[in-house]
Design brief:
Elements (H helix, E strand, L loop, with lengths): L1 E14 L4 H9 L2 E15 L15 H9 L6 E6 L8 H6 L1 E5 L11 H11 L4 H15 L14 H13 L5 E5 L6
Parallel strand pairs: 4-5
Antiparallel strand pairs: 1-2, 1-3
The protein binds adenosine-5'-triphosphate (ATP) and magnesium ion (MG).
Magnesium ion (MG) binds next to helix 2.
Length: 185
Amino acid sequence: MIAFQNVTKTYRVMRRQAGFGRAVKALFSREYETIRALDNMSFTVNDGEIVGYIGPNGAGKSTTVKILCGILTPDSGTCRINGRVPWRERLAHTREIGVVFGQRTQLWWDVPVIDSFELLRDMYRVEPACYQKNLDALVELLDLGTLLRTPARTLSLGQRMRCELAASLLHDPKTLFLDVNCRIA
Ligand SMILES: Nc1ncnc2c1ncn2[C@@H]1O[C@H](COP(=O)(O)OP(=O)(O)OP(=O)(O)O)[C@@H](O)[C@H]1O
Ligand SMILES: [Mg+2]
């Protein structure tokens, strides 16, 4: 179960005007602006539920997912996933979640996809039998056959996303987060 309650998250960003003179000036006096990415956000997701999280660009979706994964800490509010606070018990939490970030890859760029999978297996300490069972099931479900021997950098976007999805599920996570933007035509 995910309980996300009254979460606020701000970013502090440096602002400066264009131009060399302004760049030099900015070295001595910096102007900061505070961006409120999440403002008192709350939701609950029960076990077994599949939830879509939609909003315009810049609405705070990725910020939410990063907090749920324990990558970011909120300014205020609380979050518990299966009883854990993600950013406080990050290691234990990470073993129980899978995540796909559309603009980041968890695949080693220059090596065949299967090598990345085996690296993830070792990082997550997945039992060999469990790894093989999950790999076989994912290869069939996502039709990864020939892709496994292909270096990630040569895959098309769709092929890579299928491999990313498999990579995020190899360690049997209880919860899966997909931060993948799509356009609705
Ligand atoms: N690391 C950062 N530093 C400063 N501001 C940030 C940072 N990350 C996000 N923001 C700002 O926080 C706001 C929310 O960004 P976020 O990436 O969470 O939105 P999003 O809903 O995922 O958008 P998109 O649909 O474009 O992926 C935006 O205004 C963005 O500019
Ligand atoms: Mg995003």
